[in-house]
Amino acid sequence: MSAHKITDEVIEYVGILAKLDLNDEQKEKAKKDMEEMLEYVDKLNELDTSDIEPMTHIFPIENVFREDEVTNSDGKEATLLNAPEKKDDGFKVPKTIEG
Amino acid sequence: MSREYETVIGLEVHVELATKTKIFCGCKTDFGGAPNTHTCPICTGMPGALPILNKKVVEYAMAVGIATNCEITKYSKFDRKNYFYPDNPQNYQISQLYLPICRNGKVEIEVGGVKKEIGIHEIHMEEDAGKLVHDEWEDVSIVDYNRSGVPLIEIVSEPDMRSADEVIAYLEKLRQTIQYLGASDCKLNEGSMRADVNISVRKIGQKEFGTRTEMKNLNSFKAISHAIEGETERQIELLEMNREVIQETRRWDDNKESSKSMRSKEDAKDYRYFPDPDLPPICIPDEWIQKVKDNQPELREEKLERYKKDYDISEYDASLITESKHLADLFEETTAICNKPKRVVNFILGELLRLLKEKEMDDSDISFSPENFAKLIELVDSGVVNSTVSKQVFGEIFENNVDPEVYIKENNLMVVNDDGELEKVIEEVISANPKSVEDYKAGKKKAIGFLVGQTMKAMQGKANPGKVNQILTEKLQ
């Protein structure tokens, strides 16, 4: 029995945020997966990190910049190759509510 | 009933920066390009594409922060804000949650002669999303990613405003400052400046804030002030009926002058923010801050002081003209050519503002050249055209940037300096209007105004009204 119980409500809500329509079987599987993940995080929490500065980046580098110069030309064709469906030189998607 | 309540307002203002390229790639940022032409694998979120930060974005953000009295965060970084929507091809927006580049600023506003400080909680850098167009014929939406990755700063105010007037004054102040810095053109109608308004109401004297709603889709100052008034009323009505205000995002409909609920607001935790591993942190040493400070252009207050010293114009006129960077630039460039500051100011504050208002245009839309404007000023000054005709010619310069010299010649608009012709016309006017002549002779001195008007009309405006008046007076003796 896991220390973290993922309820039906939680899995339902995560599904909404991820825009996923899960059937009952998938929900049960996802609940189990998430519980195991949380357990693993508990394991990490056993370490004492009170004296350790939070890491912002894995490499000790900073200030990587580019100058403000146009380097790309018309990318329409290449970009639209990635569109599963197109219309009027745009990506055609299911109707979204305005906003 | 609303006298017992006060409105508490905070703003989130998004400003598109005036860089040539996007925040993380070398694609153009020009407004209005053909769909998806300004795109590449980075700004369309293709797997494996690596963003690299545009240095100019950091410098513009610092410049705005410095001008609004913020502290610059010496160690800043980017985070990913995760959400799924077709305008966001990466499924996350690169933004700054934990270490925004600027914090704790303030600006001063003035409403009805009363000065007030509005706190700025933070300014952070982020990328804009693509644009969704809803198809007219099919039940689908079409996505254009030209705007995806255009650099934005989001300026988050403290909840310090109490009325629509204060909100407008704050926005005008931000717009003025940012335009002076050259960091953005701040056009509300093109979306390069956008404001989301957080509104709550509370009983006067109450310490805690009420539940707030966030209002989106506000594309003009007028829409903003109507939305604030409408939402204040709505919330007060709910409270008066002992009902609750629900925390939500609402969409303003300018045509219906009302708002409706968009969706219940996602919590910060729903966005699952985490540091963006693709972007190393930004370290800003004091020297860099100093360099940006040293390079700050002349802001409004300094310009105003300089105008008072350098130009022979009134303080009042100087303050009006420096309210807008565009008008101030036009004034300086034109005056540099013709050296007649008073005439230039009068034209700008008179005819130009009138035309902008009439055509519902923004002063950033002015497209005529200072050269043609200066030429017209010279022509007026030397008496080639009178003031009535000059307004007509100015209208042509404003619309089509015509060369006034050529236009005046082609349309034969010069003041007629041939006294013989003028006298002939005046005699005709006198004999055609015996009643006015009689009135004038009977002591109604005002009657001469009508005769001057008739003469100017017969001369198609091309006479000097002073001269007409003089000749008429002589002839009526």
TrEMBL record, chain A:
Catalytic activity from the UniProt record: L-glutamyl-tRNA(Gln) + L-glutamine + ATP + H2O = L-glutaminyl-tRNA(Gln) + L-glutamate + ADP + phosphate + H(+); L-aspartyl-tRNA(Asn) + L-glutamine + ATP + H2O = L-asparaginyl-tRNA(Asn) + L-glutamate + ADP + phosphate + 2 H(+)
SUPFAM superfamilies: Glu-tRNAGln amidotransferase C subunit
Name the record gives this protein: Aspartyl/glutamyl-tRNA(Asn/Gln) amidotransferase subunit C
Lineage: Bacteria, Bacillati, Bacillota, Clostridia, Lachnospirales
GO molecular function, one term: glutaminyl-tRNA synthase (glutamine-hydrolyzing) activity
Superkingdom of the source species: Bacteria
Organism: Lachnobacterium bovis DSM 14045
Biased composition (Basic and acidic residues): 84-99
HAMAP family documented for this protein: GatC
EC number(s) recorded for this UniProt protein: 6.3.5.-
Span list, region Disordered: 76-99
Gene3D superfamilies: Glu-tRNAGln amidotransferase C subunit, N-terminal domain
Pfam family, one: GatC
One BP term from GO: regulation of translational fidelity
Function: Allows the formation of correctly charged Asn-tRNA(Asn) or Gln-tRNA(Gln) through the transamidation of misacylated Asp-tRNA(Asn) or Glu-tRNA(Gln) in organisms which lack either or both of asparaginyl-tRNA or glutaminyl-tRNA synthetases. The reaction takes place in the presence of glutamine and ATP through an activated phospho-Asp-tRNA(Asn) or phospho-Glu-tRNA(Gln).
Quaternary data: Heterotrimer of A, B and C subunits.
Family: Belongs to the GatC family.
Keywords annotated in UniProt: ATP-binding, Ligase, Nucleotide-binding, Protein biosynthesis, Transferase
TrEMBL record, chain B:
EC main group: ligase
One BP term from GO: translation
Keywords per UniProt: ATP-binding, Ligase, Nucleotide-binding, Protein biosynthesis, Transferase
Domain of life according to the entry: Bacteria
One Pfam assignment: GatB_Yqey
Transmembrane segments: none
Alphabetical list of InterPro entries matching this protein: Asn/Gln-tRNA_amidoTrfase_suB/E (IPR017959), Asn/Gln-tRNA_Trfase_suB/E_cat (IPR006075), Asn/Gln_amidotransferase (IPR018027), Asn/Gln_tRNA_amidoTrase-B-like (IPR003789), GatB (IPR004413), GatB_C_1 (IPR042114), GatB_Yqey_C_2 (IPR023168), Gln-tRNA_amidoTrfase_suB_CS (IPR017958)
Residues annotated as domain Asn/Gln amidotransferase: 329-476
A GO MF term: glutaminyl-tRNA synthase (glutamine-hydrolyzing) activity
Catalytic activity as recorded in UniProt: L-glutamyl-tRNA(Gln) + L-glutamine + ATP + H2O = L-glutaminyl-tRNA(Gln) + L-glutamate + ADP + phosphate + H(+); L-aspartyl-tRNA(Asn) + L-glutamine + ATP + H2O = L-asparaginyl-tRNA(Asn) + L-glutamate + ADP + phosphate + 2 H(+)
Keyword Transmembrane helix attached: no
SUPFAM superfamilies assigned to the protein according to its UniProt record, in alphabetical order: GatB/YqeY motif, Glutamine synthetase/guanido kinase
Entry EC number(s): 6.3.5.-
Summary of subunit composition and partner proteins: Heterotrimer of A, B and C subunits.
PANTHER family associated with the record: GLUTAMYL-TRNA GLN AMIDOTRANSFERASE SUBUNIT B MITOCHONDRIAL AND PROKARYOTIC PET112-RELATED, GLUTAMYL-TRNA(GLN) AMIDOTRANSFERASE SUBUNIT B, MITOCHONDRIAL
Job of this protein: Allows the formation of correctly charged Asn-tRNA(Asn) or Gln-tRNA(Gln) through the transamidation of misacylated Asp-tRNA(Asn) or Glu-tRNA(Gln) in organisms which lack either or both of asparaginyl-tRNA or glutaminyl-tRNA synthetases. The reaction takes place in the presence of glutamine and ATP through an activated phospho-Asp-tRNA(Asn) or phospho-Glu-tRNA(Gln).
Homology family: Belongs to the GatB/GatE family. GatB subfamily.
Protein name: Aspartyl/glutamyl-tRNA(Asn/Gln) amidotransferase subunit B
Organism from which the protein derives: Lachnobacterium bovis DSM 14045
Gene, per the UniProt record: gatB
